[in-house]
Amino acid sequence: MLRAVLPALFAAAAQAGPQVDVVHWWTSPGETAAMHALADAYRAAGGQWRDVAVVASAQARAVVLARMDAGHPPTAAQFNPSQPFRQLARQGRLHALDEVARRGRWAELLPAVLLDAVRVDGHLYAAPVAIHMPAWLWSSKAALARAGVKAEPRSMVELFAALDKLQGAGLIPLAHGGQPWQDLNLFNAILANQGGRELYQAVFRDRDPAALQGDALRQVLVNYKRLRRYVDAASPGRSWSDTTALLVSGRAGLSFMGDWAKGEFTQAGQLPGRDFGCAPGLSPRAPYIVDGDVLVFPKDRDGSARPAQELLARVATAPATQLAFSARKGSIPVRTDLDTRSLDVCAQAGAAALRDAHRLVGNTEMLLAPEQLTALERAVSDYWNRDIPAQAAQQTLAKILTDRRLP
């Protein structure tokens, strides 16, 4: 199927059969299916794919770094557009993709916020593969109907009203997994939806002292902590997948989680719009937080891997590959020029948001150094779980985000 629709520009490369070994952590059923779509596309372009799957992201990155240090790097590796990726680029350990990007018209077809995330000192060092948004609002249609909630909330006021009705019906109003990363993810969702793009950017991108000390952020913290009364007693330590299962079963009404949660609904045979709701924000203008997967291409000793790397970069960003990958993984294509009507309504809503540059913001992993992100996660989780005044939590966040000792 893909062989018939891939662009003719791959035909010349088909005779050479360049081989890539790709280190990645696409190991769940949906992720594996998406990886096979990418691998099949590369083979259809004449290449040879060698799969190196590692269960978790941290371990996969450790494998990549160990191989680079030992002098036999992988041809390609899955990464996130994060500060560790930028460090590798600045150390001169990755091949730049400027020519691939120029020929592929990335500047015209990919969102600027994503290109900025993979641009280091004026050069592009990664091929974007998929976009994930970590703050989707999910709902159980059955739970909302049982509680008398006629429509998914589209404002903070409507959110709390719906949570009250769900609680009154004896359901779990807000499904939340009480792990530190999930606590921060929920905070980011409230910051984006209540504070808007301007406050989100001021806090995480600009680290503006006035915003960090202002009343708007304090009110975000107040409402974030207010959500604590709507989670169930089994929340602490629960995984995101087990938490999503509460919505799938109709035991819980609402949840903020990334679009990877969609796979839990689809595996249960549920359909968006019929069995569950999905919204990339509380309002049509809510910020769309951009996160996702990229491929990086470590430098080899003699540059012989370069043709294979450039072919994979072109294949990964080709229209047919993008649609096939996203349909299997639940992500959004990185290109804004595609006809996404073949994707489900959730993906179509995400793709529409992606085309609105005024809604796009970077994820904290893009904007903060690892040390800052770890400290922020710990502080937000402490505030969620302990009796800490909002003003004290705000001072802690301001200190972390303006600490000059952190990059």
Automatic annotation (TrEMBL):
The keyword Transport applies. Residues 1-16 form the signal peptide. Belongs to the bacterial solute-binding protein 1 family. It holds the Pfam family SBP_bac_8. It is found in: Periplasm. InterPro entries: Bact_solute-bd_prot1, SBP. Keywords: Signal, Transport. It comes from Pelomonas margarita. Gene3D superfamilies: Periplasmic binding protein-like II. This is Probable sugar-binding periplasmic protein. Part of a binding-protein-dependent transport system for a sugar. Its main location: periplasm.
